[in-house]
Each structure stands twice: as structure tokens, then as C-alpha cells.
Amino acid sequence: MEDTNKKDKSSRRKFLETGAAAAAGIALGLAAGNLLQPGHEEAPEMVKMLTADGKLVEIEKRLIPPMCGKPVPVSNKKLLEWMEKGKS
pTM for the full model? Predict the structure, then answer.
């Protein structure tokens, strides 16, 4: 009876050692794969904005300062008046 008990313990131990070694190997492989990839940088998030002279430009979102208050809705009429005032 002792032989079967020892056999069960050794097979469990071997199973756990193999599983732990496999998990460590996978983790190392993933880490090495990420380090060996060429410099893959994500494209910055761009935002379309209107300049004072009415030109449409795209700038990086990280360059826009955070707003200090709530945004104020502007009507189309006021926006057109502002654009016309800037042209003169």
C-alpha cells in the first residue's frame, strides 16, 4: 500500500513541476518576444480643429490643455460671425 501512495505523490509532484516549468517558459517567451519587436509605437490620437483664420488643422490630443470649466455651446450664427470678424 505504501508503494502506490509514493507513486501517486511522485506523479503529482512531477505534474506540478512540469506545469510550473511550462508556465515560466511561456512567460519568458512572451516577455522576450515583446522586447525583441522593432520599435512599434502607436500613432498619436489626432483632433481636428479650426484655426482663427478658418483653416482646418489636425493636432495631437495630448497637446491640448485641459479645459478649466464646462464647454459653452455656440450657435452656427455666432461661429460664422466670429469667422467673418477674423477675416477683416
Answer: 0.34
